[in-house]
Amino acid sequence: MKHANPPNFDQSAFKQALGQFATGVTVITTRAASGQLIGITASSFNSVSLNPPLVLWSLATRSASMPVFRANSHYVVNVLAASQLDLCKRFATVKGDRFEGVSHAEGDTGMPVLDGALAWFECHNRSRYEEGDHVIFVGEVERCGVHENAAEIAPLVFQNGQFHGLKPL
C-alpha cells in the first residue's frame, strides 16, 4: 500500500484552506461520573449513516474533557441556532461551570439537552478512533429532535474565522 506524500504546505495554510468550508456549530454535552455537567463547542459534526443512524464529531486529544467523553456511554449533540452565539462562545471559552445559568433539560439517558437548540441527537458512544491530534467519536443516535420552529430559525455557521447565520437563497 502506497503512503501519502508529505504535505507541500504549512499548518497555517492548511487552517486557512479548512476555514473556507462553512460548518454548523454544535455543543456536545454529557455528564461526568461525579454528576458534573460537561459541554464543549464543536464544529466537527457530520452524519455517517442512516441505517443504523450514526453521527460523528471529533475532539482534540489534549482537551480537558477528553477523559469524560472517552469513558461515557452517552452524549448529546446540540445543533445551535444563530441566536445561540453566546452559548457557543461560553462552551468554547468559559472555565469552571459552563452550565451555570444555562437552561437545559435532561434527556432520556440523563444527558443535558440545551433549551432552544435547533436540533439535538442523543447518542450512544459507539466507537472512537484516534487520528492525528484528535479522537473521532462515532455516536449511534438513540433519540433526536428538532426545534418546533426550525424552518424559521437560522442555524449558527462558522466560516473563515467568523460566525454567520444563514438565509435561504
Entry summary:
This protein is mainly beta. It has one domain (24-151): Roll (Pnp Oxidase, Chain A).
Largest sheet: 7 strands, antiparallel
> Helix coverage percent of residues?
10-25%
Q: Give the domain tally.
A: 1
Low confidence ranges? none
Shape: globular
H/E series: HEEEEEHEHEEEEEE
| Backbone structural class | mainly beta
C-alpha-based Rg, rounded? 16 Å
CATH top level class name: Mainly Beta
Number of helices: 3
> What is the CATH homologous superfamily assignment?
Electron Transport, Fmn-binding Protein, Chain A
Output mean pLDDT: 95
Gap from first CA to last CA: 44 Å
Looking at CATH, which topology would you report?
Answer: Pnp Oxidase, Chain A
Strand order, sheet with most strands: 3-2-6-9-10-5-4
What's the count of strands? 12
InterPro entries: Flavin_Rdtase-like_dom (IPR002563), NADH-dep_flavin_reductase (IPR050268), Split_barrel_FMN-bd (IPR012349)
Enzyme class: oxidoreductase
EC number: 1.5.1.36
Domain Flavin reductase like: 18-165
